[in-house]
Structures are given as C-alpha cells and as structure tokens.
Specification:
This is Flagellar biosynthesis repressor FlbT. By secondary structure, the protein is an alpha+beta fold. It has 2 domains: about 5-45, no CATH class; about 45-130, no CATH class. It has 5 helices and 5 strands, in the order βββββααααα. Strands 3-2-5 form a 3-stranded antiparallel sheet, with no helix packed on it. A hairpin with a 2-residue loop joins β2 and β3. α3 (about 95-105) runs antiparallel to α4 (about 110-120). The protein is globular. About 20% of the residues are buried.
Length: about 130
C-alpha cells in the first residue's frame, strides 16, 4: 500500500493495523508509506449484520482481511471464487472493469484497492435488487 494518502475529516476514525486512530478537530491528511499496512476507514466499514447481499458479503470478506481478522493467504482462493460468482451477475463493461480491478488487487495482495473497487458495485447492486420481482 505504499503511497496511500488518507484525507480525514474532523473526528474521523480509521483503523490502522488493528489500532483505531481518531483525527483531531481539523481536516488532515496522512501519507501511509509502510507497504502492506492494513487500513480501513471506519465510516466505510460494513457491520456483520449489514453484509446481507452478495456484493456486501464480498466487501465484508475483504474488510476482514484489512482488519487483520482473516489471513489474506488463506482467504485468497475464496475471495477469487466470490469475485467469479459476482462476475456471473454483473456483466456490463463498467462492472466487469471493477471486478477485474478487484481480482488483480487480490492477486497483488492489495486488499484496500480490492475493497475500493468492490464498493463501486454497491449502488448497482441496490438498483438491481430494487427492481427485482418479489
């Protein structure tokens, strides 16, 4: 994750290698220079009970790797399978591009980029589920 820049709002919290860090009263910018640091903005975190759709479940799985709760080497194949399953549903070019980016990120052990790519699918998934016949 070398070169990651976090821009934090006042009082925003971020998880860095298992430690919760809270920003002060003003906006700030942090440069993360340590490779392979596990970083998650808590405002972007998906709670377990909210991982109730296919994309949210895969995002949550990526999040568990970022928080250090799951070993990325042990979960690599499972993540690739989940991404393959999503590719069976999201067939438009933009979604395919996001899934390809997420897949490449997993293969390169860049789980932050994987989560970022997957989050672009959340609005599409919401629209698909909203028009689904009941």
């Amino acid at each position: 994750m070398s070169g990651l820049v976090l821009k934090l709002a006042p009082k925003e919290r971020v998880l860095v290698n298992g430690a919760v860090i809270e920003n002060g009263d003003r906006r700030s910018r942090l440069s993360i220079v340590t490779p392979d640091a596990n970083i998650l903005r808590l405002r972007d975190a998906i709670h377990p009970e909210d991982a109730n759709t296919p994309v949210r479940r895969v995002c949550y799985a990526a999040q568990l790797i970022l928080t250090g709760d799951v070993d990325p080497k042990e979960d690599r194949l499972a993540m690739l399978r989940r991404l393959e399953e999503l590719s069976q549903v999201f067939t438009d070019p933009d979604s395919r591009s996001s899934l390809a980016e997420a897949t490449n990120a997993i293969l390169n052990d860049n789980h932050y980029r994987c989560l970022k790519a997957l989050r672009t699918l959340l609005p599409r998934e919401e629209r698909l589920l909203a028009i689904r016949p009941s």
